[in-house]
Amino acid sequence: MSRIAVLTDSSSIRTELAREYGISIIPLTICWGDEAYLEGETIDASTFYRQLKERKDLPTTSQPSMGEFMVKFRAVAREFDTDTILGVIVSSRISGTFLSAQQAKAELPDLNIELVDAGFISMGTGFQAMVAARMAREGAPMGDILARLKRVRESMEIFCAMETLEYLHRGGRIGGAARFMGALLNLKPILTMANGQIEAFEKIRTRKKSLQRIVEVVEERLAGRRPIELAVVQAAAEQADIDYLTGMLKERLDPQQLLIEEFMPVIGIHSGPGTLGVVYYTDDGL
Fold first, then answer.
1. Judging by DSSP bridges, how do beta strands 60-62 and 35-38 pair with one another?
2. pLDDT at 163 (0 to 100)
3. Element housing 85 (H / E)
4. Which of 57, 68, 150, 239 could form a disulfide with 64 if both were Cys (CB 3.0 to 4.6 A apart)?
5. Phi and psi for 138 in degrees, rounded to 5?
6. Selected residue with higher pLDDT from 169 and 241
7. pLDDT at 170 over 80
8. Closest CA to 36 of 11, 61, 58
9. Sign of the C-alpha dihedral, residues 38, 21, 132, 227?
10. Domain ranges of the chain
């Protein structure tokens, strides 16, 4: 049986974490003025968020083309000496990246490529890639990995406290959160994801209360269960806010693993600086 190589896109996981798990990354492109950057390769998150705050022009994003996916699939097959690749890709309702991967797969019949629409962004996709990579390393067959990822997705949730919806609105990614527009003076919206797209959850008066509310909601949803993996995800948020949220999560939820991760720039373009949230799942693999 061929080894299963796992691939995800750059919006989902930082390079160092992907390398730790043996996950290959295909980069998305950030276009800013006359410059084009490969996410995670030619621009890092700290540089990106500093410029996002300083510059008046808003960057745009571009998913990998079918051709770029074909080249990447071939490269991954050579690197891992395999003809079997599992791609775990950001929600198809957020990005065209999944479609490009499907088109590339159709052009490579000699490779056994399976594609998973993660239905989430950021570490919602990253966690699924990590689960797949761990199982692949242990020799699990593709069918078992796909079944496990389905259970992970079904138990996964994401909640984010926003500083503003301006960036989502300008980038056209606001989805069901549009009903908050026009009513956000001095309000701090909480967004979630449902059916692969960004949706409104609640609007809160203050930043601190929005973070408290996220923890309350997660605790309610868990109903005494312990999250297997949990990530605090942030886009150039204040360290005091990150520490406050992390402290509450550790005290009240006792997750088996807690990571503190950045929203990668392609996501940060739409979330805007200051976004801070939680991604978790509860599936135990049984």
1. unpaired
2. 82
3. strand 84-89
4. 68
5. -85, 0
6. 241
7. no
8. 61
9. negative
10. 4-28+63-153, 156-281
In degrees, to the nearest 5, what angle opens at C-alpha 278 toward C-alphas 277 and 282? 170
Torsion angles phi and psi, residue 38, rounded to 5: -90, 120
CA pair distance 36, 265, nearest whole angstrom? 13
CB contact set of 228 (below 8 Å; sequence gap of 6+)? 255, 256, 257, 280, 281, 282, 283, 284
Instruction: Report the alpha-carbon distance of residue 168 to residue 171 in Å, rounded.
Output: 5
| CATH number 3.40.50.10170 is the correct assignment for the domain at 4-28+63-153 | yes
Q: What is the 3-state secondary structure (H, E, C) of 27-68?
A: CCEEEECCEEEEECCCECHHHHHHHHHHCCCCCEEECCCHHH
Structure tokens given for 105: 């797969």
pLDDT at 74: 98
| 156-281 placed in CATH 3.40.50.970 | no
Task: Please name which of 264, 205, 259 lies closest in space to residue 235, comparing C-alpha atoms.
Answer: 264
Neighbours of 285 (CB within 10 A): 12
Number of Cβ within 10 Å of residue 20's Cβ equals: 12
Q: Which of 97, 62, 95, 122 is nearest to 275 (CA)?
A: 122
Show Cβ contacts of residue 220 under 8 Å, excluding neighbours closer than 6 positions. none
